[in-house]
Amino acid sequence: MTSFRSASDLTGTQLAEIFTRGFEGYFVPVQVSPRDWSTIVRSVGVDLDSSVVAQVDGHDVGVMAISVRGRTARVAAMGIAAAFRGRGVGRALLRYGLAALDERGFERVLLEVIDGNEGAIRLYASEGFEIARRLVGWERAVGGTTPRAIELLEVDPVQVARFAAAHGHADPPWQLAPETLAAVTPPATGLALPSGDAMALVVDRPDGTTRLLGLAARSDEAASTLLSGAVARKPDRRLSHPPICPEDHLASAFGSAGFTCTDLAQWEMCRRQ
Ligand SMILES: CC(C)(COP(=O)(O)OP(=O)(O)OC[C@H]1O[C@@H](n2cnc3c(N)ncnc32)[C@H](O)[C@@H]1OP(=O)(O)O)[C@@H](O)C(=O)NCCC(=O)NCCS
After folding, report:
1. Which domains does the chain have, with CATH numbers?
2. Which of 124, 160, 244, 250 has its CA 20 to 30 A from that of 169?
3. Could you read off the pLDDT of 150-188 as tens digits, one per residue?
4. CA distance linking residue 128 with residue 120, whole number of Å
5. Residue pLDDT, tens place only, 66-114
6. CA-85 nearest atom, ligand 1
7. CA-to-CA distance for 270 and 273, rounded, in angstroms?
């Protein structure tokens, strides 16, 4: 028997465990500690009151994490423990969570799904989600010609968020929205061209790579200059941007700075009430 309870009734440790089990065998390894879980909650703005845990015979078997922003909600993550998949629990959880959002008056619900995740795409499509656009990632391997050094200023991520609000994508995906960028904290930092024509967020990761968390510019040329500067700044680190960029957005800037698309891409899907 499937039942549901609000994620706010569980501890962070319980939610981290359900989350990890929900993503067993996923495309990318997902192992979430209680500390990671609280970072996720803060950085992507998971609303625990809107998020739902599914139970089968009294055991927690899956979670639908929801973020909310104005009249838009987002399925930040959804996973069912492997042993309980394919039995209708995911659909029931999705319907339960969406019905509650509809009742509260949210106008649209967004989500992103890896483009090869056929099962999840089929589930979402059958519950009213439509594909809105393709989101791609970018990477630049170490090696090749290092661009000449370009002066970059380190700035507060909040400044990058404000710049992105004025000069970034007019309809940014959730993870590139100024509200998301403003939640970025050290050790991540903002980088800016001294001209103020382009800004980005970067974080050095323990695995020796640098991750771009967002890029906004007044022109493709300025974006490309900033990307080249970021490469020259840390030539021994692979630079990558997760697959959250609308595919046509700043694509020529990434291309001219030596970046190629990552293998992993996502669909952004949208359901309107
Ligand atoms: C995607 C997921 C949440 C679906 O939950 P679930 O409990 O397995 O799904 P259900 O049993 O309710 O099935 C609902 C629908 O999903 C689709 N579906 C689910 N798994 C599928 C699969 N392996 N292949 C094809 N379709 C699948 C079907 O359309 C199914 O509808 P049907 O029962 O009418 O055929 C679950 O498989 C999961 O946790 N996967 C790993 C994590 C993940 O991929 N999360 C989504 C990230 S965006």
Report:
1. 2-106 (3.40.630.30), 137-269 (3.40.630)
2. 124
3. 999 999 999 999 999 999 999 999 999 999 999 999 999
4. 13
5. 999 999 999 999 999 999 999 999 999 999 999 999 999 999 999 999 9
6. 8
7. 10
